[in-house]
Amino acid sequence: MLTLHPTKKSAEQTQLITKHSLHESLLHFRILLAEDNEINQKLVLRLLEKKGYRVTVANNGQEALSIWEKDPVDLILMDVQMPKMDGLETTMAIRKKEEKTGKHVPIIAMTAHAMQEDKGKCFEAGMNEYLTKPISPKELIDIIESKINE
Ligand code: MN
C-alpha cells in the first residue's frame, strides 16, 4: 500500500492518490481458481479478469495445493467436487500447512450442493465463505471485495 502524507497534499491530490492506490491493490490481488469443470472455469475466469484480478487456474485440488505452496495467493476460489483431491481435502491440507506459518488465506467454497450439511462440511474443513452454483457474478465479486477490505 501507498503511504499517504495528507498534510503535504491538497484534498484533490490526496483523493486521486487514494483512488490510484485502491486500484493498484486491486490489480495486485491474486486469486487462485481451483475448478475442474471447464465451463465454470472459463465463466469465473472471465468475470475475474474483467475486474482486473490476477488469476491462476488449477484443474484439481492437487494442482491447487502445489501452486499455492510455490506461490501464495491472496484468495482461493475452491470448487468442492474435484478429481484427485477434492476441495475439502485441499482446504484441510492448506490449513494444516498454515499452522506452521501463522498465515490464513481466505478460501471461498463453490459447490452445487446448497444443503446445510454441505455448508457445514466446508466450514469444518476450514473454508471461510460459501458460494452456490450456478455462481452469481454479483455475489462472487461482493465476496472477493469484502476479503480485499478485511
Ligand atoms: Mn467440480
CATH topology: Rossmann fold
Question: In angstroms, what separates the terminal alpha carbons?
Answer: 14 Å
CATH superfamily: Response regulator
**Rg value:** 17 Å
- Distinct ligands, ions and cofactors found in the model: manganese (II) ion
What's the overall geometry? globular
Structural class: alpha/beta
Helix content: 40-55%
Proportion of strand residues: 15-25%
Q: Uncertain regions: pLDDT < 50 for 5+ in a row?
A: none
N-to-C order of helices and strands: HEHEHEHEHEH
Q: Give the CATH architecture.
A: 3-Layer(aba) Sandwich
How many domains in all?
1
Descriptive report:
51% of the residues lie in helices and 16% in strands. It is of the alpha/beta class and 150 residues long. It has a single domain, classed as Response regulator (Rossmann fold, 3-Layer(aba) Sandwich). A five-stranded parallel β-sheet has the order 2-1-3-4-5, sandwiched between helices. Helix 3 (61-70) packs parallel to helix 4. The chain is globular. The mean pLDDT is 87. Bound molecules: manganese (II) ion (MN). Manganese (II) ion (MN) binds next to loops.
